[in-house]
Amino acid sequence: MAFSLNSEQAAQLEQIVARYPIKQAACIPALHLCQEANGNWITAEVIQFVAERLELSTAHVSGVVSFYSLLNSKPVGKHQLWVCRTLSCALRGSEAILGHCERRLGIKPGETTPDGNVTLRTAECLASCGTAPMVQLDDKYYENLTIKHLDAILDAICEEPTGTP
Amino acid sequence: MLNRTELITKNYDKLEGQSISEYIASGGYAAAEKALQMPREMLVNEVKAAHIRGRGGAGFDCGVKWGFMPPLESKPHYLIVNADEGEPGTFKDRTIMEQNPHLLIEGCIIGCYAIGAHCCYIYVRHELHMAKSRMWAAIEQAKAKGYLGKHPFGQANPIDIWVHTGAGAYICGEETALLNSLEGRRGEPRLKPPFPAQSGAFGCPTSVNNVETIAAVTLALRMGGDAFSRLSTLHNFNDGGVRLFGVSGHVKRPGIYEAAVGLTLRELVYDLGGGILDDRPMLGVIPGGSSCPILLPSELVDVPSDPRFEPYNGKSVLDLPMGVDTFRAIGTMLGTCCAIVLSDAADPVLACRNLVQFYKHESCGQCTPCREGCGWLDRLLDKIVGGTATLDELNLASEVASNIAGNTICAFGDGAAGPVLAFVQKFRASFEDYIRSGGNKQTRRLAL
Predict the structure, then answer these.
(1) pLDDT per residue over B40-52, tens digit each?
(2) I need a labelling partner for A59 at 20 to 30 A (CA). Which of A132, B243, B396, B409 fits?
(3) Contact A125 B447 (CB under 8 A)
(4) B 249-268 near A (Cβ less than 8 A)
(5) Are residues B131 and B248 in contact, defined by beta-carbon separation less than 8 angstroms?
(6) Which residues of B touch A123 (CB under 8 A)?
(7) Which positions of chain B have pLDDT values less than 70?
């Protein structure tokens, strides 16, 4: 099925394109907009749509999508949980945070829970080193994290907590 | 010398700290209004006198960079603010955007006028959602006051500011990769020359500056360039003003602290950071983001060729004022001025592997030495930690790192090689322990 934007989203895209001297510059913001409108991932139809709207080749847009880690070429869960793993967080216990997420969700980084609720991923430095360890859940940072705090976050997004081992 | 200041951080953590009314009440936007009435050349000279060394890591003088911009002729000029903060250990620009956004907006207005730009894009990494929304809100407020648009402060030079977002790629913090990303391409660094001042965004003359650098421009214009520069202990190194110092890792009070340039690492770690967790000895400190080679407290300053180092020679590197040129002279870099501290309970081999994994993940893949080399390093470090590596392979890791450094289009290669070379050289015994014992028989970890 061909992808398209609703009128409000289409107006947003117009505004984005108007910010730049060339249409191509709207490529990444347009992909963010369309990804959100398409259930958080980018299909061949989305690529086709963005390419046509910005007068680019689909090869160009595909190349952009494959370059950036926040543009999803595969379906992801309703929630995306990123655990920062880089040095400052690692020094403050990010390994334990990640391990706890893996056990509670029953998945490894890069995987999505079978009910399609949560995708777990590791992140490289999210500029929150002074408040490590931290996770990002969708658009929100959770900092100075403890296992107890993490449990509360996971409880809130999992309808049926799977319990701790 | 420890000289804490509050020029950037005064309203941090206040409920209304980021509002435009609070900002104007404390003297905000007066510097921009004044700047827009100055001749451009005089304005650039004022910024030169402030000796603002680029706060994003390279340490290049902001006024000198602006001086490279050609005169306004046929092509439009652009100011690009690099807010793609992602260097491991670095979390300072985010605080400016979230807690003092108007300081940055005012700096953008001054910067645009100084280099003749009609338009500024603030390239914020996508993950920083709060920073983006605060910047958008600040832009709207400034527009409503008539500080932006066709006639900012009633003057005839139009200035527009937009927030642009990336999509998760560390390399887009490299200025030419950022420009490609801004133009809607893959974020691969460009060959230089041409430098951005000749051909940057959309093929036009462009200056790319870090968030904190642009914020410092506002401060310099407020008090005068020379007065700003003289706040620093390193005024004689042309390294002026105040800056944000970050400290993270094994310290009691991690965070961002504002102080005059010239603070020492000892003051940052012990006075501001509260000392090492559990009062343990320090293993080492990475001074300014992961690309800067680690320093050990036992290392001594030894720069006999430069008389300015005379007071520091023979002292611990922890007692050398933190400056762009002072740290370059002792074989590391000041980088982003955000230190990562390791206690002696930490395992340097695991720390090295953690950073190698970062560079492997973030190499853009354009240059073969970096793309392949970071993969080799990752596999070698895995073998070392797994206890299956030989001593030859440890030497190979240093050799691979040396072959990346200097052989790539951008500085990422040097950034990836530097930490490996420093860790292997400075903690060789720990690496050999792993190899001899067939794996980790030690009790040390990363987290305490």
Answers:
(1) 999 999 999 999 9
(2) B409
(3) no
(4) 249-250, 254-256
(5) no
(6) 127
(7) 440-444
- Residues of chain A with Cβ-Cβ distance to B247 below 8 Å are 130
Report the alpha-carbon distance of residue A102 to residue B167 in Å, rounded: 25
What's chain B's Rg over C-alpha atoms? 22
Domains of chain A: 7-67 (1.10.10), 79-157 (3.40.30.10)
d(CA A97, CA A147): 7
Q: Which of B86, B254, B357 lies at the smallest CB-CB distance from A130? A: B254
Write the CB contacts of B326 (distance below 8 Å, at least 6 apart in sequence). Answer: B234, B237, B239, B309, B312, B320, B334
Helix boundaries (H) for B363-411? 368-386, 391-404
Confidence of residue A143 (pLDDT cuts 50, 70, 90): very high
CA distance to partner chain B, nearest, from residue A25 (Å):
4
Q: Select the CATH number that applies to the domain covering B20-229 from these four: 3.40.50.11540, 3.30.70.330, 1.10.3720.10, 3.40.50.2300.
A: 3.40.50.11540
User: What are the distances in angstroms from CA B265 to CA A24, B237, B261, B280, B323?
Assistant: 45, 18, 12, 17, 11
How far away is chain A from the Cα of B314, in angstroms, using its nearest Cα? Answer: 30
The answer, yes or no, to whether ipTM is higher than 0.85 is: yes
Pick among B127, B135, B340 to test the A interface (most A CBs inside 10 A): B127
- The single-letter DSSP state of residue B249 is E
Instruction: Tell which residue, B194, B189, B180, B198, has the closest CA to residue B411.
Output: B189
Kindly provide the b/e burial profile for residues B329-349, where b requires at least 16 CB atoms within 10 angstroms of the residue's own CB.
Answer: bbebbbbbbbbbbbbebbbbb
Phi, psi of B106 (to 5 degrees): -60, -40
Q: Identify the pLDDT of residue B448.
A: 85
Give the whole-angstrom CA distance, residue B166 versus residue B173. Answer: 10
Strand partners, B117: B77
